[in-house]
Amino acid sequence: xxxxxxxxxxxxxxxxxxxxxxxxxxxxxxxxxxxxxxxxxxxxxxxxxxxxxxxxxxxxxxxxxxxxxxxxxxxxxxxxxxxxxxxxxxxxxxxxxxxxxxxxxxxxxxxxxxxxxxxxxxxxxxxxxxxxxxxxxxxxxxxxxxxxxxxxxxxxxxxxxxxxxxxxxxxxxxxxxxxxxxxxxxxxxxxxxxxxxxxxxxxxxxxxxxxxxxxxxxxxxxxxxxxxxxxxxxxxxxxxxxxxxxxxxxxxxxxxxxxxxxxxxxxxxxxxxxxxxxxxxxxxxxxxxxxxxxxxxxxxxxxxxxxxxxxxxxxxxxxxxxxxxxxxxxxxxxxxxxxxxxxxxxxxxxxxxxxxxxxxxxxxxxxxxxxxxxxxxxxxxxxxxxxxxxxxxxxxxxxxx
Length: 401
Fold this sequence. Notes:
By secondary structure, the chain is an alpha+beta fold. The chain has eleven helices and 21 strands. The chain has three domains: 81-174, Thrombin, subunit H (Beta Barrel); 188-298, Thrombin, subunit H (Beta Barrel); 305-398, PDZ domain (Pdz3 Domain, Roll), CATH 2.30.42. It is 27% helix and 33% strand.
């Protein structure tokens, strides 16, 4: 009896369960992402229509990539490039030719022959005002007889040399016109070691002779406050060192920060092979700014002052005799009577260690500090005297006639 009842119940329930499972399975299949009538099926092979991208989508992708590639560096380059210029100059240089017989008799009576030849040189620069003032190096354009400035749009202008300063290696040019793009001078005192910088210019004439856009190289600030050895009467102090590639022809071009501000003027490279090895130096913008203000005003930097000091370098023997812990500084050999130095209290035998906070290593480093001054300025000096350090202030007075 019980077995018969169970059999009858199974006959009724099994078909119902099968029918319900089918309905549930249909509902699940028809409500999924690949229902009948959809364009894509899980097992269907890809078709050309499925992988192609419309032109509108492609434009959108390109725009996205473009936005992604734009950054502080590219924005700074875009801002600065129109104001960077290539500079071509012609100098007249003198060359000494020996007499053709190389005979002492002829040399004594006739000497060597001096000939003058035009020499073409190139460099870089940048515009600093809408009315066409251009900054470059003295060693680029300071002795030029003809100067041609090439803009990034291909225009060429004959430039006038407004003024030049050999000591700081800065020159100021002027081209005729208006509404020129120009660069803003930044604050070089705020430069951070390790921050990104960009060098722009005309290396090997690529700007003026090959293309119409300045060459761009990127690096970081490697060091600041670098005092280099003087070269041909030029004193490079407080220089900004960078590993951004600087080569021949980059001289006079701007070193800018990520905001597009000029923080230095590219001027010197250290190289054993005339190529870049990652040791480039730029004159700090604050030093350049002070010089170009004077050049714009009078065409020269007024250094008609005197100190009344005669100095010599401190060597190991002098340092040991006076009890200095290191070799460095300059010792005063003479103080002229009635001079600014005498009035400031300097004495023979004093050793100058610091000037305006700058460590003095030798005569050239002191000349570089004082050379930045003008009549009426005061130079704060730290002096070693009688095995003690004292502070003195030297006023730069107009040279007596």
